[in-house]
Amino acid sequence: MPQAAIVTGMEHSGTTFLSDLLKSHPRINGGFEGGMLLGNSPADFPNIQPFYDWMQKANNPTQWAVSAEKMRFVTAAPTWPEMYRRVMESSPLFSDTADILLDKAPPYMPILDQLMQKVPFPAIVIYKPVLYQYTSYKKRDFTLENFVWRYTHYFTGFFKAWKRFSSRMLLVPHGELARKPEEVLRTVFRFLHIEQPADEGDPASARLTAGPVTADYDPDKAESDIRLLSAYEKEVLNKISQDETLHKLALRL
């Protein structure tokens, strides 16, 4: 059973929604974003922004709320697993029942192979089909060129990690999570070797992170956004698409 689990994926692919649902399990918790593994050592974490500052925020019950004094204790850890243990000791998110830290950060995906070498923990990666992923970026004013670079960069990192560490990785299709979250959760909990609680772990009980997190999960709106794409955009996106390969690798419910 892991002490921690990594959640990653492209920005706007559902990483926050997936993390919120996983934290409906009484044994799993974590703040909005982690990012602890982005440095070369735990001592680098103060330079990893905005993640270091986010870990000290305490505006609502879903944030890490680790004090500045305790952050010095956290970043003095000699190893990554010890750093995670110190975060769990220092954050009020971790009660007697919560013993698995969820470290969610989209920037992990391009360097996932490096991270899997740093820690022995499992990684859960969520993805959207390329057209859906692009529309999520486009409405945030990303250009097609920028998206193509980002998509290629992120999935190059993913496939490099999958080649070496697939036994510790689970690939979650965003569409499956949106349509049948209960089944996806059961699969993820099995992957993490934890039991599905009889009366907890219900997606309806999850505390969703504040903000427009669920906006991407309106299937009618998503289809409408795709219909508005130009023929040129679709041609470019279909050329770089990894949808077919990802579908073959993704979880089977």
Characterization of the model:
- The chain is of the alpha/beta class and 253 residues long.
- It has a single domain (4-30, 94-249), classed as Rossmann fold.
- Helices cover 45% and strands 9% of the residues.
- It has twelve helices and five strands.
- A five-stranded parallel sheet has the order 2-3-1-4-5, with helices on both faces.
- Helix 3 packs antiparallel against helix 4 and helix 5 packs parallel to helix 7 (144-165).
- The longest helix has 22 residues, at 144-165.
Quickly give the CATH architecture.
3-Layer(aba) Sandwich
Distance between the termini: 21 Å
Secondary structure: helix percent: 40-55%
Number of helices: 12
Radius of gyration: 18 Å
CATH homologous superfamily grouping: P-loop containing nucleotide triphosphate hydrolases
- What is the strand tally? 5
Query: In this structure, how is the largest beta sheet organized?
Result: 5 strands, parallel
Strand proportion: 5-15%
Shape by Cα distribution: globular
- Order of strands, main sheet, comes to 2-3-1-4-5
Output the helix-strand order.
EHEHHHEHEHHEHHHHH
Number of domains: 1
Q: Which CATH C-level class is it?
A: Alpha Beta
What is the typical, i.e. mean, pLDDT? Answer: 91
Overall structural class, as computed from helix and strand content, comes to: alpha/beta
Low-confidence stretches: 210-216
CATH topology: Rossmann fold
